[in-house]
Amino acid sequence: MAKIVIIGGSFGGLTAAFELKRLLGNKADVTLLCDVDQFVFVPSLPWISMGWRKPEDITLPLEKILTPKGIKFIHEEATGVDADKSKVITKTQEIPYDYLVIASGPALGFSSVPGLGPEGGYTECIFTLEQAIKTNKSWNKFLEKPGPVVIGAVQGVSCFGPAYEYAFEVDTELRKRKLRHKVPMTFVTSEPYIGHFGIGGLRTSRRMMEDEFADREIKVIANQTVEEFVPDEVRLKDGIKLPFKIAMFAPPMAGVKAVFHLGNPKGFIPVDANYRHKNYKNIFSVGVAIVIAPPEQTPVPTGVPKTGFMTEHMAKDAAKSIAADILGKPSPETEPVGALCIMDMGNKAALMKAYPVLPPRRVAELKVGINYKWAKQAFEKYYLWKIKRGLTQLP
Length: 395
Ligand SMILES: Cc1cc2nc3c(=O)[nH]c(=O)nc-3n(C[C@H](O)[C@H](O)[C@H](O)COP(=O)(O)OP(=O)(O)OC[C@H]3O[C@@H](n4cnc5c(N)ncnc54)[C@H](O)[C@@H]3O)c2cc1C
Known about the structure:
Layout: E1 2-7, H1 11-24, E2 28-34, E3 38-40, H2 45-49, E4 59-61, H3 62-66, E5 72-75, E6 80-82, E7 87-89, E8 94-96, E9 99-102, E10 106-108, H4 129-144, E11 149-153, H5 161-176, E12 185-189, H6 205-215, E13 218-221, E14 226-230, E15 233-236, E16 241-243, E17 246-250, E18 253-255, E19 283-285, H7 308-326, E20 339-344, E21 349-355, E22 363-369, H8 370-388
Parallel strand pairs: 1-2, 1-9, 2-5, 9-19, 11-12, 11-17, 12-13
Antiparallel strand pairs: 3-4, 6-7, 7-8, 10-18, 14-15, 15-16, 20-21, 21-22
Helix pairs in contact: 1-7
Bound molecules: flavin-adenine dinucleotide.
């Protein structure tokens, strides 16, 4: 029986685990290793930060959903991988594997800008459950005595969506509470223009986002490098200083420590079209952990976002490739990854479709409406229902 070890219990790791078990049944001994014991529906973290969701609404216990499917769960952090000896290393054990799937997501690079981040810095972040809970506490305090808000993405960021979502949600909530007139809002981004999203824009995204920010009276400063954050102020490279009562900035990402040595200079794993490591035939990687080269060089560095939809697509392809290997079949043909994403805008949402993710594209769509907000709310419930039952073969 082939021993498959998966690092990470989120979109990539869970999808790979369920698909491998479904494709291989008793021919595979599948173990999933994760440093946290719950699945977190990350796309709803901005709603946690706004107080629109509670943690129990968007989390599931990993052991309970994996064990019934015959997948072993180990609640431990991988501290390293010995790729030559095919072993995952933790504090208490060495786990040998025939195949390894790295779905460990990102390490968040708060140290890239002085004062960035919630630990030892002055800005909020909504990229993990703990951070989103903390941001909600700061938000409730802010509402008692509102003031200027600065939201954005520093240089080197790839995941821009949450910063946009947070800006629109803050604007919507402040209007609902009739507080908006007390709050000057500024959006600062490393993108060359708003609506670039790290993917070179999507059809009319630039014009649409410029109109949206103008309609909401949120000042935009694009193509910017942040020099530093001090307790109540953002200082930009070109000398602009922006005071804030609350600031939320997306951080740049890198590969996690345990697998950093298997990656490029940022620790992201280089893979082929089947998500197989370029140098290690029995290592696969999916999701945020992999390298995707940017479509263009931007004046201020930016990266390409890797969304949940893209991650699931990659995990399914990686599982098919591993299964083919084990069953002695040739590697399957794969299609380039596409993106389908709904960006929340507080009182409505934007549907974004890109196939392939980077231009030139065969399909590119961007539509805004209240119906997409309802679709996003319904999708959250559907996805949690689906993953709880291990039904990753469903769309
Ligand atoms: C705030 C926010 C909102 C988003 N909204 C959307 C959206 O609306 N739609 C969309 O499609 N995408 C969205 N995304 C992107 C989406 O969340 C990611 O694409 C997705 O989470 C990537 O999945 P992953 O499995 O690659 O990595 P992650 O979700 O980052 O999971 C990595 C897993 O590995 C574990 N891990 C890390 N290191 C180790 C280790 N050393 N040992 C063991 N376990 C480890 C982590 O605990 C985690 O369980 C959003 C992202 C953020 C941050």
